[in-house]
Design a protein that fits this description.
alpha+beta; seven-stranded mixed sheet; about 25% strand; globular
Amino acid sequence: MNEADAHMTDMLIASYLDRRLSDVERERFENHLAECPECRQALIEAESLLKRVRPTWKANKVVALIAAVLVLVAVDLKIQQSNDLSAPTTTRAISTADARLTAYGPSGEVTRSGLRFVWSPLAGAISYKILLVDARSRPVWSAAAADTSISLPATVVLRSGENYLWAVDALASDGTTHSTGLREFRVNR
């Protein structure tokens, strides 16, 4: 992708989804996604199409990690409810891997410097919460965000050669929580 292109090409989107971009190309791609709603939508549509035509195989470990993230979200919501005694007690539905909330990057092999997390917006979202865990499901970092991208603080140490998993949960105005599901990346330097 070069600066002259207003939007990403279908071939570039396919290369991104197949993890065939170099580190530099992927970083430029994700930075562009953070700024361009049309390209984010094109990526969402391409991912949706791929999910329909090719099955995804998930290891039991990833399914267990998704369950752990959902438990953390449920506990967080319960704590928030118990801290606000004036709020009515309601049950909030949690939707995993919601098609309207998609994690874009990082994924695959990444460099530690300038690591930025990017996801699609959710219509009616009040806030987003990001959680980063190591390969053994130990929390590494979490943050609340109002926008659809956030940079990893320099104070968070990620080890080279290690795998990490991350997910974003969105609290919608109707009280439901939607999740991107887990995304995995590996720090190569």
